[in-house]
Structures are given as C-alpha cells and as structure tokens.
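Tutorial, part two.
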Amino acid sequence: MKQTIKNPVKNDGSLHFVLDTLIFFIFVEMQILIFRTQFPASVKRGLGFLLLVSLLSTMPPGKKPTEAYLFAYYSGDGGSGLHLAWSEDGRHFQVLKKGKSFLKPGVGDYLFLDPALTQTPDGIFHLVWAPGPYRRQIAYAWSRNLIDWSPQSLIRIMEKDSVILGLGGPELNFDEAAGRFSLSWSCTVPGKFPATAENNDSLPGGYMLNPRVYRKLSSNLSEWSPSELWFDPGHPVSDASIVRDSSRVFLFYKDASNFDKNIQLNVKMVKGFSVSGTFANENPVMASRRTHAEAPAAMRLDSNFILYYQRFKTGKIGASITRDFKKWKDYSDSVSFPKGAKHGSVLKVHPKIVSRLRSLEDQ
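Running the prediction step on this input gives:
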C-alpha cells in the first residue's frame, strides 16, 4: 500500500476571524454616530472615509510566508535560458515572471542546459550550466538579486582531452571549512573505462556514452586547479549533486549502468565528510526507487529530507522523502512543478527574494 507523509499545518484563522468581526462592529457603530451629528453631508462623508482608512490599517495582516524555495530549471532545447519557480511549502512550485527567462544564454553554443543555482554566505547567487553537450567549458554567472546578472563567462574543463561527449550536470559548491569552491560535472571521454562501455547507447562516430564525474577547485572563481576524476564507482555515473545536512554531507548521483543484466538508471546516495572531499562508493542507498530517474536535487524540508528528480521516460519531476536517509518513500504525488521543467536545482531563500521576483509579474 502506498504511504503518504502528511504535512500538518497550524490553523490560526479563528483568531483573525474574531478580530475582523470586532473591527467591523466598531466601524458600524462609529458610522452611526457620525450620521447622527449635525455636520454637513460633505463633512460626514469625509469623516466616514477617514474612519474607514484608520480602521483598515489596524486589521491584522494575512499570514506572511516565513519560508520560501526556488527551483531553477530549463525547458525545451535550452535556448530560452534560466527559468525560475517558487514555493512556500517546498512541494508545489509555481512559475515566476509568467514563465519568461531570467537569463538568456550568451556564451558557448548559446544553450542553457542542466542549470545549478546556489547561494554563498555573502548572499551572492552563483549559477552554472552546460553551454553545449560537447563543449569543454562550463558557463558561469552571478547575481545579488536574480534579476541583474554579471557578464557570462566560460570555465575551461577537461584540458587534457580533445573530445568529450554528453557534458551535463554541472554543480558549484562552496566549502566553507576549506574556503574554496568545487565545480563538478559529468561527461564521457571516448576510450576511457572500456570495460563499461560495451552496451551503452551509441553516438555518432561509433562512440559510447560512458560518463564519470570530474571536478576542479578554486578559492576565487578565477584561478582553477586542473580537471580531475572525482567520482568513479566502477560503472557509468552522472548528475552528481552534493547536499549538506548539519554536519553530514551526501552525494546524490544517477547510476547510469545500462548493461543487459544490470540496468539501473536511478538515483543513489553515498555519504562523505566534506563538500570538496572525496566520496567512496560504500553501501550506496537507492533513493529514487526504479523510476528511470536523473538530475537529483535535494534539501531539508521540515523534519524530512526530500529528493526531487527527473523521470526521463515521462518527462515529469518526481520526488522521494526520508527521515533517516536509509528508507526512502515515493512522494511524487505530493509535489508539482511547472509543465516542461527540466533538470532543475532547488534551494531555500529569504521570502523577500521571492517577493521581489513575484513583483515582476506586473511589469
């Protein structure tokens, strides 16, 4: 039987109802008193209007959201750029800016694929994306408000390889303890890891998709270490995403194994010790069940931990939820995302950020 985790919501509407009713009766009584005076009609109307304004200003405001979440994604072929959706509960996301782009691609192949949005402790938002499936570059831009953006730039990757295939899943993380950024991505290097390349999907030229996860490090986002192999569990993997939860660090990734007797194509999780450290493939936990999932994005949500992922067979976004990082339950029926949203990243932000973005609806 399918289990659903409830989301209890505190109901404080009764107090608002009592206060609103009391203010209404006070307003009626004051209007009657003004009507019974000997003032001219024009004065009575003026006093009534002032009374109405003053009393309305004392009414309790509606409940303001104390939390807000953003989902950064792309749609279509990636040509339209960055799209954002917001949510008050982390479960149901609505488009912002009527679905219009917040940033159009201006570098590389002028494509905007697999965006990853993060915010550093100084409040700056950092955005990375794949500017094309065969580029040896990651695109980057930053913003303080998600409206005004820096010039777009390209970070060179895979310096020692002349050809790469299937570039995707870039992610930028800041390791506060080490004071450095870690930029990761997945791609296939033709000829590498031949033992796991036999039964994968063919590409033009006879190549096979056989991805691994690579990375490079920087303390200032301008000078980078050489690209290096970062996560290789002995089989194809892609879409690596790091999530911090208190002192714990987790790496979610797509197990891209697609062999005759070992078809996975799901999201798994392993533990680590630091954001820019290494992750051993010890006792990986299947987090997405067997749903042909990719593009993991996860975060803490109330007392639970939620994982979103792309169901690439249906084109929809699904979810799993857990309390202990051991047992994951399907949560797909409890979340909703904009139609056509692809390969997104999620993060919790200050409600004022979302309020300003929502104000763009009227522009």
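The chain has two domains: 13-58, 72-362. In part three we will examine how such features are distributed along the chain.
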